[in-house]
């Protein structure tokens, strides 16, 4: 139902949502503000519009194409990366230093989130063909996944920025299954949410999925930001937070 677009938010759901220009206290963004649209308030999920430009998208796609491999997931028990029937797509990683344009995208992601990008993972580019999808999951590691992100030593994935690098003719929404909302891909926009509460606990309300692509092809890229270095940007709290936003 969510994937089909049949569960529309009611006027009462939409009533408190706002769109606004934001600068997030970044001096440059006072001149070039970002377009923010609220998609959900608690947990806070926003869409930024027009934050990846067509020339950037073309370049990122060009860099990703020759590197594409069948996307993998991390086995919760062994920590090994493996293919799974519940994630059908191709993915590739692009390092920030590889191109000035990628550096610009990462700087913009910092402006959008107010978070330190030195502990973010590289840009993960993903392409879903017809039938491509990703079943409901969390982006953060659960307590029992002891080996997750071990090599990185930067803590858990505090936040996700998901860039939409194409429109999708039919299907392909990102759906939050507990919140019962669907985000429809729009080329150049990006979704941003925190995966963890301020206490560092995983926010289980952020469970989400990529619906199957029915017609066309879907391109996204993920920027996953980690916990380390964020203590002044998003201070910790003892309690799980509710609907507060750091920026
Ligand atoms: O492609 C999407 O809409 C969501 C992708 C996703 O959740 C992921 O790659 O972790
Ligand atoms: Fe995800």
TrEMBL record:
Keywords: Dioxygenase, Iron, Metal-binding, Oxidoreductase, Vitamin C
Required co-factors: L-ascorbate
UniProt KW Iron keyword: yes
One cellular component (GO) term of this entry: endoplasmic reticulum
Organism superkingdom: Eukaryota
One example GO MF annotation: L-ascorbic acid binding
Domain Fe2OG dioxygenase: 119-227
Keyword Zinc-finger belongs to the record: no
Protein's UniProt name: (Mediterranean fruit fly) hypothetical protein
Species this protein is from: Ceratitis capitata (Mediterranean fruit fly)
């Amino acid at each position: 139902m969510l994937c089909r677009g049949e569960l529309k938010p009611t006027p009462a759901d939409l009533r408190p949502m706002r769109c606004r220009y934001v600068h997030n206290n970044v001096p440059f963004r006072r001149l070039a503000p970002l377009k923010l649209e609220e998609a959900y308030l608690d947990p806070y999920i926003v869409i930024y519009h027009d934050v990846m430009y067509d020339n950037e998208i073309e370049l990122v796609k060009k860099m990703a194409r020759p590197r594409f491999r069948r996307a993998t997931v991390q086995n919760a028990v062994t920590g090994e990366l493996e293919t799974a029937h519940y994630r059908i797509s191709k993915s590739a990683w692009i390092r920030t230093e590889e191109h000035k344009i990628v550096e610009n995208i990462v700087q913009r992601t910092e402006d959008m989130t107010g978070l330190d990008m030195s502990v973010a993972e590289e840009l993960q580019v993903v392409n879903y063909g017809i039938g491509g999808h990703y079943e409901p999951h969390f982006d953060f590691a659960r307590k029992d996944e002891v080996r997750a992100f071990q090599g990185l030593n930067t803590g858990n994935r505090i936040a996700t920025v998901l860039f939409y690098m194409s429109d999708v003719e039919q299907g392909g929404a990102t759906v939050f299954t507990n919140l019962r909302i669907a985000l429809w891909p729009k080329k150049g926009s990006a979704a941003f949410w925190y995966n963890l509460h301020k206490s560092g606990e995983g926010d289980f309300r952020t469970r989400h999925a990529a619906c199957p692509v029915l017609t066309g092809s879907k391109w996204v890229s993920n920027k996953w930001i980690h916990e380390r270095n964020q203590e002044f940007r998003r201070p910790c709290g003892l309690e799980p937070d509710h609907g507060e936003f750091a920026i």
